[in-house]
Amino acid sequence: MERERTSLFARHALALVGGAALVGTTLLGPDALAGGSAPPDIRVIEVKGSDTPKVVAKAVIDQPPEKVWQVVSECASYKKRMPRIEASRLVKQEGNKHTCEVTIAMPFPLSNLTAVTEAVHEVSDQGMSRRWKLLRGDYKFNQGSWEVKPHDGGKKSLVVYTVHAEPNTALPGWIREAAQKKAIPELFERVGEEASKLK
């Protein structure tokens, strides 16, 4: 169990499955995010056939969905828009399929984690989604999604971030604690901040 939990930092930082049973663990307190957005509700969900749970985070961001979507869908800009990203680039795009290479900056003395993923983008009046799967990299598996839907008449965005991933190398317990307390709240806060900069 401890080995499973120590991988949470990497899963949360990315910039994600069926057959899951909700554990119902909310990991965050009531502190508000910058800009008045609600703090993310974070749940750990057991996945049938996997020792590693997936993580689902949901929050309302005080920015319209078009701006939030621009932040989470453009992987080439993750380095400047997302926290803890050492490098990011769009490898290729074919229709609505985007192949991206993203490197997560890990604290010393751990090595950075790189993944090449293929993401499928879907855009409609009801909302937008970006669902990715691992092609290759420093992970046993890495899949997830960003979902962005209009909220409050389109003035705000309901954002759901899902990730189910495990790096090849086990991570120490103190990183797990940092992930639970900081990584996902920081991610949502940064997405809101970057969306507010867009015109």
Structural overview:
The radius of gyration is 16 Å and the shape is globular. It is built from five helices and nine strands; from the N terminus they run H-H-E-E-E-H-H-E-E-E-E-E-E-H. The protein has a nine-stranded antiparallel β-sheet with strand order 1-2-3-9-8-7-6-5-4. Helix 3 packs across helix 5 (173-197). The model is unreliable at 1-36 (pLDDT under 50). 24% of the residues lie in helices and 44% in strands. A hairpin with an 8-residue loop joins strand 5 and strand 6 (113-124). It has a single domain (2-197), classed as Alpha-D-Glucose-1,6-Bisphosphate, Chain A, domain 4.
How would you briefly describe this protein structure?
The chain is α+β, with helices and mostly antiparallel strands and 199 residues long. It has helices spanning 2-5, 8-13, 65-73, 78-81, 173-197, and strands spanning 20-26, 41-47, 54-61, 85-94, 97-104, 113-124, 127-137, 139-151, 156-167. A nine-stranded antiparallel sheet has the order 1-2-3-9-8-7-6-5-4.
Largest sheet: 9 strands, antiparallel
Gross CATH architecture = 2-Layer Sandwich
* Spatial extent as radius of gyration: 16 Å
How far the N terminus sits from the C terminus, by CA atoms, comes to 45 Å
Shape: globular
| Highest-level CATH class | Alpha Beta
CATH homology superfamily: START domain
Tell me roughly what share of residues is in helical segments: 10-25%
